[in-house]
Write a structure and sequence with these properties.
The structure is a single chain. The chain is α/β, with parallel strands linked by helices. The protein is 50% helix and 8% strand. The chain contains 31 helices and 15 strands. Strands 4-5-6-13-12 form a five-stranded mixed sheet. A four-stranded mixed sheet has the order 1-9-10-11, covered by helices on one side. It has a two-stranded parallel ribbon with strand order 2-3. The two termini are 43 Å apart.
């Protein structure tokens, strides 16, 4: 039997048969101890209780050692699909403090809490006032000075504390780092008991001290991901940049005689550990079931701007392609000046029908981050976390993942009474009462502006007590600014505060506004009221619907549509840019959408662009699939009036490219074209519709097809028919 297939079987058995019982046992034990402790310390602060929680978790974990996995970072505390968030996939021990204190969000300011919930249908966020997921892991300090060095920093800071709040943070952070080392020693004991003496010695030393070998560096990446998730109760979505962090260790090992094939085997086993947290033996009924929020970022440039492409890059891409691992997600940075060998390497699997990655354009994203206040050196070191979040976790780590549903205010403005807009006290003019298109357009933007500013104002107010709910002191100690500031991340202890606003359904709203302008104001085919009735009744006039669909639209390269899309983009970015954040940073706009393209689409009513109720929505800046299929170059022409350097929250596009027409060389050229034309984040598939339809009918013979869904990749045959049909329905961009 293939040794890697044997490892998969071993991991599946551990993750899905043995691990759930361990996780629940730990949760019950920790909750019991902490309940008794809190009862005996009724005046204890959140920092005091979190310090105790760190220690109780570390003391009671039962690490898992697997004989064919040469790493020691499986704590036995998180379910297979859990990224660290306290309730992801099930309840976890790290959620005790959050469960105890979540009521504070409402109790502290009931009016703010109630108002926040009243406008919740306009946006989506994975937490109360703050995002409890999508956090990056600060890796630089661990690789530079280890946990020992961080403890030295904390003890030095303790000597200069001036307030009780500062002392509480430093004490809690020290408890968190000590708990991390206690877990390392428990992992060491478990490895020794399993007869893995070399591994036991390694994890006892590292990351207390910085890693010195490639093997130690790989283990450190996994250790930080698992142990922070075990302790903090928040979801972590990035393990950093392996080809930056591990490159010196790789070169040192090679100089000492370690062969590339030995290191490739280590990387292969490392990837399998994460990939098998998805059980590919079953079909996933909902797309989000396949989402694990676990990434590494490869390529790009270093702090000085020089290209990053080395032996570590090759090892990770080669191992992934050979094993067909979709996790950890490999986010691939590129630019117009990327090395040719790198672009061809990252194109190889893509042109063979295996799309594993999001491709992020440094020429856009680095200036975008600098434009929102990030220092150039930090911006050059960004990682892509979660689905598409540009993160600089060594310096800041705050909100992310907030979607603003542009179709929701549009829906209510289509109604003569404004529906929910009136209930929440927003000023508006219903579409049918607008005397001109400019008045209609201004009413829509005004509503978006009012709701977004209200949302951020409420978040700013509500998140001020975040650290009273669940401070993240171990995480904060790893970040560069928090120890000098003596302040937790959740209390504003970062270099620059970060909140994002991800606008959704750009194409649907652009095309619908443009259709209203053309049909009702320019050509006077019907009144706005009559068009709104067509939408309310789901387009009973098919001839009229076809006329709406046949209008020029975003994505076809036409001058007027492209110019209007640029105007709308600029107006939304300006609205977001005028919003302030809780601790003085800039709001980061972006254009993205996740699996809501299906289930939010099912709930979205008919729109003026000819879209019927329930049909799919577009992802990010992707054109509507109502549009006739155009060439890739028409699509690129459509964004000529959009400067994505203004979207520091990222703007992603999903492309379906024709199978058989692209090889590695041509795809490398295309990536340079994407960079030159200013696309920011590209999610391509290179597969034919016919092949996907065949895979639906005969899945066993098409298990090698890997598709980019939306923010993650998956074997096509593992997806439910609903999500398979969505991918098949996507427009092909002809070349």
């Amino acid at each position: 039997m293939d040794p890697y297939e044997a490892i998969k079987s071993e991991l599946y058995e551990y993750y899905f048969e043995r691990l759930p019982q361990k996780v629940e046992k730990l949760r019950q034990t920790v909750f019991g101890i902490m309940d008794r402790y809190a009862a005996g310390h009724p005046a204890a602060s959140s920092y005091f209780l979190k310090a105790k929680l760190y220690d109780v978790i570390a003391e009671n974990i039962e690490p898992g050692m697997l004989p064919d996995i040469p790493f020691a970072f499986e704590t036995g505390a998180l379910l297979a699909t859990c990224d660290g968030r306290f309730n992801r996939g099930g309840e976890h021990a790290n959620g005790w403090l959050i469960h105890r204190n979540r009521h504070l969000y409402e109790d502290h300011d009931p009016e703010t809490y109630a108002e926040y919930n009243r406008i919740h249908e306009y946006f989506a966020q994975t937490g109360v006032f703050a995002d409890f997921m999508h956090l990056g892991i600060p890796m630089k300090k661990v690789f530079r000075i280890g946990l020992r060095g961080i403890l030295r920093e904390l003890r030095a800071a303790e000597e200069t504390c001036e307030t009780p709040a500062e002392r509480e943070f430093i004490a809690c952070a020290e408890a968190g780092i000590c708990a991390m080392q206690k877990i390392a020693l428990k992992l060491s004991e478990a490895a020794a008991a399993a007869g893995m003496d070399g591994l036991a010695d390694m994890v006892a030393r590292v990351p207390y001290d910085p890693p010195e070998t490639f093997h130690e560096g790989l283990n450190t990446l996994g250790f930080m991901r698992k142990v922070l998730g075990t302790l903090e109760g928040y979801g972590f979505s990035s393990m950093g940049r392996p080809d930056v962090l591990l490159a010196p260790l790789y070169e040192r090992d090679r100089a000492c005689g370690v062969r590339d094939d030995e290191m490739l085997d280590l990387v292969s086993r490392f990837l399998l550990f994460w990939d098998c947290t998805n059980d590919r033996r079953k079909k996933f009924e909902n797309g989000w079931e396949y989402e694990l929020e676990n990434t590494v970022t490869l390529g790009g440039c270093d702090d000085g701007g020089a290209p990053v492409f080395n032996g570590v890059t090759r090892l990770f891409i080669t191992a992934r392609d050979s094993l067909r691992c979709t996790y950890p997600k490999m986010m691939l940075r590129f630019s117009e000046s990327s090395p040719e060998e790198y672009l061809r390497l990252v194109s190889r699997s893509l042109t063979r029908g295996q799309s594993y990655s999001l491709y992020e354009n440094d020429d856009v994203t680095i200036p975008a981050l600098v434009g929102c206040g990030t220092e150039l050196r930090d911006a050059r070191g960004y990682v892509v976390g979660g689905c598409w979040d540009p993160l600089t976790p060594d310096t800041n780590n705050k909100f992310s993942g907030e979607y603003f549903f542009l179709t929701t205010p549009f829906k209510y403005l289509m109604r003569p009474d404004g529906g929910h807009l009136r209930e929440i006290g927003v000023d508006f003019i219903p579409f049918e009462k607008a005397g001109s298109f400019e008045e209609l357009y201004g009413s829509y933007l005004g509503v978006v502006d009012q709701i977004l500013k209200r949302k951020l104002r409420l978040e700013n107010r509500g998140s001020r007590i975040w650290d009273r709910v669940n401070p993240a002191c171990a995480l904060s100690a790893l970040m560069e600014p928090c120890i000098p500031m003596k302040k937790d991340m959740t209390a504003g202890g970062s270099k620059d505060s970060r909140e994002s606003a991800y606008f959704t359904c750009l194409a649907e709203v652009v095309d619908s506004l443009d259709a209203i302008k053309r049909l009702c104001f320019d050509d006077r085919v019907l009144t706005v009221k009559e068009l709104m009735r067509q939408c309310a009744e789901n387009w009973p006039d098919e001839e009229l619907r076809r006329r709406a669909v046949s209008l020029p639209s975003y994505g076809d390269g036409s001058e007027e549509s492209s110019r209007f899309a640029g105007r709308f983009y600029d107006d939304l970015v300006a609205i977001a840019g005028a919003c302030t954040t809780a601790y003085g940073g800039k709001c980061r706009p972006g254009f993205n959408l996740y699996t809501e393209i299906v289930y939010l689409g099912e709930e979205t009513e008919a729109l003026p662009n000819g879209r019927r109720a329930g049909e799919y929505l577009s992802q990010g800046i992707t054109p509507s699939r109502l549009q006739k299929e155009c060439s890739l170059y028409d699509l690129l022409d459509s964004v000529r009036y959009i400067d994505f350097r203004k979207t520091s929250g990222n703007s992603s596009i999903t492309l379906t490219l024709p199978a058989g027409k692209l090889d590695e060389e041509k795809m490398a050229v295309l990536f340079r074209v994407f960079a030159r034309n200013g696309l920011q984040a590209v999610q391509p598939n290179c597969v034919s519709r016919e092949e996907l339809i065949s895979a639906q009918a005969d899945p066993e013979n098409h298990r090698d097809i890997i598709v980019r869904v939306c923010g993650f990749s998956a074997p096509f045959v593992c997806l439910s028919p609903k999500y398979q049909d969505e991918i098949i329905s996507r427009n092909m961009s002809e070349i």
